[in-house]
Each structure stands twice: as structure tokens, then as C-alpha cells.
Design a protein that fits this description.
globular, six-stranded mixed β-sheet, 34 strands, about 25% helix, disulfide bond, 20 helices, 4 domains
């Protein structure tokens, strides 16, 4: 019999012969195809395995290189390998490695002291019950490779169920005692027919039999719901003694630059009876300095109940430092031994919150519920919440990001989990328990250090597993503007977290029925979020009017102001933003704009000195934001320049596009994907920037009414200043409540084709040489003194109105009397308007 080698050698094709004629007996083309296909497949599999092993090995070697030692444990989870491949700094790499190896899944049994839980009842058999087609326990169903009576009962306890049921080896069901009312009981032997997986000696039910055991939860905790209590018939206008004695600690968690909106909110909530601690994200220096100015101003007037916290954290979305910061503020206040230490409730607010009811109403309702904490629950199945919230993974924060580093198999035993919102109203009793350095609090803090969104669940879980389990009201007195179609955009969170989450949208307009007084009272909504005057100021005015309805004189004074509908948000300040990545680009534009405006003026010889600030100004909610440049010349004169941004877009609707019609196209940078607005008020890019085009479409009547696609499939072309096509981009249809669609060009990734000059982005027409739209945009060179830079500034921008901070020329109005200037009086954000009560 010939060998395989001989048979394969015989397949070679001699001259003048055909391959089929030379095949040995028994070997066909199909055999050859199978053989060589198998060789290729085997080669591919081996290559993939080697690449994966090399990848893991390279990461481990990299960790060893940076730490000068071997890791403390084997880094064998693909999640930590992925994280270590993406980190940038040695510090973060070491931090992730140490966190991974520090015993994330230590076996811990919680000291659960809730009266509704009995540790002695965990795993106690209830009986064996028949199950045919309909699930016996109807709460939730798991499938576990690690299934066992202990594993299943703990999973169901975490989700708040009284009973756990095991079936068919890997199935774990959760439910309540009510599920057994009509159940058919079987003999215990029927539940010992399928062993548990993982080689366990235990039995995990039968094929049609469920082994039901207790989770230790004796009964479901009754969930209290808040009920609005109307104020007694007294005069609350300016009377600090008109409400019951309750003292509040307001913790303001600020992350942004809109300091005027913060002050507007504080005007509605400020009272000398309460205390206010402000934490500003460590990256937001402008807001920090503005809040320090506010603190100094109040202290000069004898108000010592407002403090800006000096210890600062990076409070990113979902970050572990949110909980750390909140607990640190509580701890400091209790230990302060001054007027900050004696309070009844602590509640946190952001710059995006506004009250919907008066401070007096909030005080009255909280005073009548002393000892209760107001915590919003998720509102759906807790087991599903645990899955969606990522509790089955361990996370670690560094480099302003939450890294997912491990799949979690072990949880603390005897723990119930709950959560839903990180905006809380916590009673002093629960807050003091949270600060205890041993027992339950310490155990939970260790666990929540590695949890995504820890502040959304820590106080909920602490209360449920402690003697406070009956002292929770399951609403946080807030209305949240959830629009999940738009708010659950994973792309907006990719830079900060290895997860996909949701965040609310900004309220817009005046007609939101959820703000109506009767509705707000019926649902006990004392606050609402989110608000953003950069997006819409009308909704803020509606909330403000309702919160001030008991003080009509103050409300009327605000409405008379010419600045009532206007918004100013700082975008750049030379003192705190000296290292801003666009500082020199902004300054180059300001220099050329000022030079053009000052030409021929009496102070022309003073020349431009430097840009001191950049503001966004909106006359009202419908107006587009305009840049306001704050400049100083060589003679020390200060000017504000309202900059006109020229429209460089041409639109020619395409008759061939039957389903959609383009409405407009806007160029900019820093697009907010949820709100679909450009956060950078000065649309300018250089060769290292990212340029974004935002399109808006109108659906034609030819489309089915039920379609959920608000824009078409389009083929965009990006052209450089030399007329060279640098990117051909297929933009997929997009579903947006604002009918938007966007595309971004990363100029830094184009390499040789990035030539400064006038670029364009266009959508070719199907049936003609015209573009459906074409938008030109300048790509600025690094030399702001170059002729090209000056030409591009003239092409894209023009000086509009100008005012002077100091009287320079009678023909130039003062900024203090110019309605668009940041110096124009704005009573709604005026520090002097604070109540002295």
C-alpha cells in the first residue's frame, strides 16, 4: 500500500497530462479540497492561539517591565488583558494590576442585620414541586455553570426574592411564597435526579421537578412611596421660622463651566438655616475659581454656611470616585464641629438640577419624614437590574476612565442589592452608618470600590442589609428627563467607560406638562434634571417660576430684566486655561479679528496684546450661540467682540432623494451626541483637530409613518484645500429625536494630505453634478501670523458689534450697557440677590 506522501507526490502534473488523469485510485478532487482546507484551517487556528498567547504574554511582560517585578497573580482574564493593552500611563497600568490581584472576589459573608432576613434560613429546603410548561417560580430565571443550592439561593437573595428553585442541573429560578399557592408537591427523590454541575455532590432538581429552598428573606420589604404634604396656611416669604426645624446639607457636585446656572439654582435654595458644600471636578478649574469667588462674597456678607471643598476628585460618569467624594464630604461635615456638622439630611445636586417646588415645601415635607432616606429604585426586576448595571464585572478607575477588568463569579454572601439613581436624599442616621469603619459598612465599601456607578446603589444596598431596611422611601423626589432612544448612545460614553449606559436629556421648551403644579405635587417631584441654559433657557424659567411662586415680588423682578432670556457660558479663560489645547488657535483668530476691526480707529496703534476670554452668548433659546471674544490691547484697553460666524454651506435639494429632504448642514467641533449641539462655540480646527458635520433631515410623506429611521444612507466626500478627495465615507441611517445625522473627520489621522487651507465636505447628488450640500471650513496653520491664517479668518469670521470695558472712545459703547456682553447685568445670576434669611 502506497504511503500518503507517495500518493501526494504522484499528484504532480507532468507535461501534457491533465490532473484528473493522474489522480491515484481512491483520491478525488474533493479529497484534495478537504485535505488542503483542513491544513489551512489548522494553520489559522494555531495562528490565532499563538497570537492570543503572545498578546497575553506581551501584556504581562509589559507590566513586569514597568513594575520591575512579576505581577502578584496570573492575569488570565481577557478583560484585564484588554485594559492593559489600552492604558497609557505606567501609574494606571500598575493600578489596574494591583486592583486585579487584590482579591476582588474574596469570600465574605455580610453582617446582614435587617429584621426581614434570617441567615439561619438560607438554603433551608421548602420542598420538591412539579413543573411542566409554566415556570413554578416566576420572578427570574438564571442558567449557571456553577449552579448549586448555595449559589442559586444567594443569587435570588441578591435580587430580593424569598425563594430559590433548582431544576435540570443548571437552571436556577427565583420567586416568592405566593408562587407556591397552587403548586403540586412531589417526593424529595424527584428532585435528586439531576446532579449539580462542576462535579458537585449536591442535586439540582429534576427534569420536571424543582427543588425549592429559602433565600433567608422572611418577607419582602414594603416599599414606601412619598406623598406630597401641603404647607400650612402661613406666610413663608422671608420668614425663616415659618417651617419646621429641619437642617439640610446640600452637596453640589459640579462638573462644567456654566457657573451662572449654578448661581441661578442656588438663589432658589439658599437659606442661612442650611449648609452648602461644593465639590468641583478636579479638571474644572474655571468653575472652582468661580465658586471660590462666591464663597468669599458670601463670607464678606456674614454668611459662613457655604464652602468649596478643597479636596477634589475626577467625577467621571460611573466613576468610583463619585462615592468616595460624597462620603468624604459627609465625613468632613460631621467632624467639622461647627455649623456644618449638625444637619438632618444630606442631598446632592448637580449644575443641571433645578427645584420645581419651593424650599419651604421641601423643608416641610422632609421635616415630617425625619429618619427616612429618599432613594430612587430602578423600577423593574432587580435581577435584570443587576445584569444591566454590570454588577457581574469588576471595574477600576484611572486615567479618567472606568476600566472593566474582571468577570465576577463571587459576591458577598447574604447580600441584597438595590439601586437606581446616584441622586439621593440620605438621612443622618443612614449617613452615620455608612461611615462606620467596621462591620457591614466596611464590607460593602470594599465591594462597591469595584462597582460601576457605585453611588447609584451603595446607600440602597446598605439600607436593605441593615437595621435601616424599613427607613427607605423609594423615590428621590426628582423628575428625570429620560429619553432613552437618544440618551442611551454608547458612543458618548466610550471615552470614559468600558460599558454602555444611559443619561437623561435636557428639558426643552415651556410646555412640558410634567412641570404642571398638580402633576408635580401628585408625584412628589421637588427637583428635576437635566437643565442646560446653553441648550434651552425656557424650561429653566418655567421651573424657576414655580419654585418662586410663593415669592411673587422676587419673580417679577427677574422677569423685568433684559437679560432674563439670555445665556452666557464661559468657554475659555486665560488665567485658568493656560494649557487649553486650542488656546493659540483662539488667540490667532482673536488677533486677526481685532486687527481688522481696529483698523482706522483712534487706538489702532495700541495693537492686539492677548485674548483673555471666550464666551458663548445666546439671546434666547431659539437663537444660535455666538462667540464673544474678550481681548486686551497693548495700551491696556479691554474689549468684547461679538463674532459673526459666516455661513459657508450651500444646499441644493436633490429631487432624486424621495424619502428625505435635507434641512441644514452645520460644521463644528465637540459635538454633544445626545443633545446634538456643538459645545465648542468657536468652530475652528487645525491640522490636529477633529472636524464634524451635523446634518438635519426632514422625512417626506413617501416614508411609512412607523419608520424609526430619521435620516438616509449617504455617501459623504471630504476634500482638502488642493481639491484632493481625502475620505469617502458611507454614513449609515440614524435614528434621532432631533432628526440629526453626523460624521467626523480626524485630521490627525490623514497624514500627508493635511494641508492647511479651505476644506470642504459634500454630499454628491444622484442625478446631477451639483452637491446636495457642500460645507466649506478652514483648517488653520500653526503660524497665526501667516498670510494664510489671516485669509482663513476673513473667510470664516467677521467682527460684529464691539464694546469696551473701559471708556476708550465715545463711539464704542460700554460693555456694562451692551446686552450681549458678559458684563451686562444679569440678575438671575447675581450674587447680591441671595436671600439673607
Amino acid at each position: 500500500m502506497t504511503s500518503l506522501r507517495q500518493r501526494l507526490t504522484a499528484i504532480r502534473k507532468p507535461e501534457g497530462t491533465t490532473l484528473p488523469a493522474m489522480l491515484p485510485t481512491g483520491i478525488t478532487r474533493r479529497h484534495l479540497a478537504y485535505f488542503f482546507g483542513g491544513v489551512v484551517f489548522l494553520y489559522f487556528c494555531v495562528t490565532v492561539i499563538l497570537i492570543q498567547e503572545l498578546s497575553v504574554d506581551s501584556v504581562i511582560k509589559k507590566v513586569q517591565t514597568y513594575t520591575d517585578s512579576t505581577p502578584k497573580c496570573v492575569l488570565n482574564d481577557s478583560l484585564v488583558v484588554s485594559a492593559l493593552q489600552r492604558v497609557q500611563s505606567e501609574e494606571c497600568r500598575n493600578s489596574i494590576t494591583n486592583a486585579y490581584c487584590s482579591g476582588i472576589e474574596q469570600k465574605v459573608t455580610l453582617e446582614n442585620t435587617c429584621p426581614d432576613f434570617a441567615a439561619s434560613q438560607v438554603g433551608v429546603p421548602i420542598g420538591c414541586f412539579n413543573e411542566s410548561t409554566t415556570p413554578l417560580l416566576r420572578g427570574f430565571a438564571y442558567t449557571f455553570d456553577e449552579n448549586s443550592p448555595s449559589y442559586c439561593s444567594q443569587a435570588c437573595l441578591r435580587a430580593g426574592y424569598e425563594l430559590a428553585g433548582l431544576k435540570a442541573s443548571r437552571r436556577c429560578y427565583c420567586g416568592s411564597k405566593n408562587d407556591l399557592k397552587k403548586a403540586v408537591k412531589l417526593d424529595d427523590a424527584s428532585c435528586r435526579t439531576t446532579p449539580c454541575p462542576m462535579g458537585s455532590n449536591s442535586s439540582c432538581g429534576g427534569i420536571h421537578a424543582v427543588s425549592v429552598i429559602s433565600t433567608g428573606l422572611l418577607s419582602s420589604v414594603k416599599r414606601l412611596i412619598p406623598v406630597y404634604q401641603p404647607l400650612p396656611d402661613v406666610d413663608f416669604d422671608g420668614d425663616p421660622n415659618a417651617t419646621p426645624n429641619v437642617k439640610l446639607l446640600f452637596v453640589l457636585q459640579l462638573n462644567g463651566r456654566n457657573s451662572r446656572q449654578v448661581i441661578r439654582m442656588l438663589r432658589l435654595l439658599y437659606s442661612q438655616k442650611h449648609v452648602y458644600v461644593v465639590h468641583v471636578d478636579s479638571r474644572q478649574e474655571f468653575m472652582f475659581q468661580e465658586m471660590k469667588k462666591l464663597q468669599n462674597s458670601l463670607e464678606k456678607r456674614g454668611h459662613n454656611n457655604f464652602l468649596v471643598f478643597e479636596e477634589r476628585f475626577q467625577t467621571i460618569w460611573g466613576g468610583s470616585t463619585l462615592l468616595t467624594m460624597f462620603l468624604r464630604v459627609i465625613q468632613w461635615s460631621i467632624q467639622a464641629r461647627n455649623n456644618f456638622s449638625n444637619w438632618d439630611y444630606v442631598l446632592n445636586l448637580s449644575e443641571s438640577d433645578m427645584p420645581l417646588l419651593s424650599l419651604a415645601e421641601l423643608e416641610f415635607n422632609l421635616a415630617n419624614s425625619k429618619g427616612k432616606s429618599f432613594l430612587a429604585s430602578h423600577g423593574y426586576n432587580t435581577a435584570d437590574f443587576i445584569r444591566k448595571q454590570g454588577f457581574h464585572f469588576a471595574f477600576h478607575q484611572c486615567e479618567s476612565r472606568m476600566w472593566r477588568i474582571k468577570t465576577r463569579k463571587q459576591f458577598p454572601k447574604n447580600m441584597r442589592i438595590d439601586g437606581g439613581s446616584d441622586w439621593v436624599i440620605v438621612s443622618r442616621n443612614l449617613a452615620v452608618t455608612a461611615l462606620e469603619k467596621d462591620g457591614l459598612s466596611k464590607q460593602l465599601l470594599t465591594y462597591f470600590e469595584t462597582i460601576l456607578l457605585p453611588l447609584e446603589g451603595f446607600f440602597h444596598t446598605l439600607a436593605l442589609n441593615s437595621h435601616h431596611c424599613h427607613d427607605v422611601v423609594y423615590k428621590n423626589l426628582r423628575l428625570t428627563n429620560w429619553r432613552r432612544q437618544q440618551g442611551c448612545r454608547c458612543a458618548s460614553l466610550k471615552p470614559v467607560v468600558d460599558w454602555c449606559g444611559c443619561s437623561p436629556l435636557v428639558f426643552r421648551g415651556k410646555g412640558d406638562k410634567r412641570f404642571e403644579l398638580a402633576t408635580v405635587k401628585s408625584k412628589a417631584h421637588f427637583f428635576a434634571r437635566k437643565f442646560d441654559s446653553f441648550v434651552d433657557v425656557d424650561a429653566i424659567a418655567v421651573a424657576e417660576a414655580q419654585a418662586l411662586r410663593l415669592q411673587p415680588a422676587l419673580l417679577e423682578g427677574l422677569r423685568k430684566s433684559k437679560a432674563f432670556e439670555a445665556t452666557w457660558v464661559n468657554a475659555f479663560d486665560v488665567v485658568v486655561d493656560y494649557d487649553h489645547k486650542k488656546r493659540f488657535l483662539y488667540e490667532g483668530i482673536a488677533k486677526n479679528v481685532f486687527r481688522k476691526w481696529a483698523s482706522g480707529q483712534s487706538f489702532e496703534n495700541c495693537k492686539f496684546d492677548h485674548l483673555t476670554g471666550l464666551w458663548a452668548y445666546k439671546a434666547n433659546s431659539q437663537a444660535k450661540p455666538k462667540p464673544v471674544l474678550v481681548v486686551r490691547d497693548g495700551c491696556g484697553n479691554r474689549f468684547h467682540i461679538l463674532l459673526d460666524v459666516k455661513n459657508l454651506t450651500t444646499i441644493t435639494p436633490d429631487p432624486g432623494m424621495l424619502d428625505y429632504e435635507i434641512v441644514d448642514a452645520e460644521f463644528g467641533t465637540s459635538l454633544d451626541l445626545k443633545e446634538e449641539v456643538f459645545r465648542d462655540v468657536l468652530p475652528a480646527v487645525d491640522v490636529t483637530s477633529k472636524a464634524t458635520i451635523l446634518l438635519h433631515w426632514r422625512q417626506n410623506t413617501s416614508l411609512p409613518l412607523a419608520t424609526n429611521i430619521t435620516s438616509p444612507l449617504i455617501n459623504l466626500q471630504w476634500w482638502n484645500t488642493l481639491g484632493r478627495l481625502v475620505k469617502h465615507e458611507l454614513v449609515k441611517p440614524y435614528n434621532s429625536i432631533f432628526s440629526g445625522q453626523h460624521a467626523t473627520l480626524d485630521l490627525n489621522a490623514i497624514n500627508a494630505d493635511v494641508v492647511p487651507g479651505l476644506w470642504s465636505v459634500r454630499l454628491p447628488s444622484k442625478d446631477s453634478s451639483d452637491a446636495v450640500f457642500e460645507t466649506h471650513f478652514p483648517v488653520f496653520p500653526s503660524d497665526s501670523d501667516s498670510e494664510l491664517f489671516a485669509k482663513l479668518v476673513v473667510t470664516a469670521f467677521a467682527p460684529g458689534d464691539v464694546c469696551s470695558v473701559d471708556r476708550v472712545d465715545p463711539r464704542v459703547p460700554l460693555c456694562a450697557t451692551t446686552e450681549w456682553s458678559p458684563d451686562f447685568p444679569d440678575p438671575k445670576a447675581d450674587l447680591s440677590a441671595f436671600s439673607l434669611a
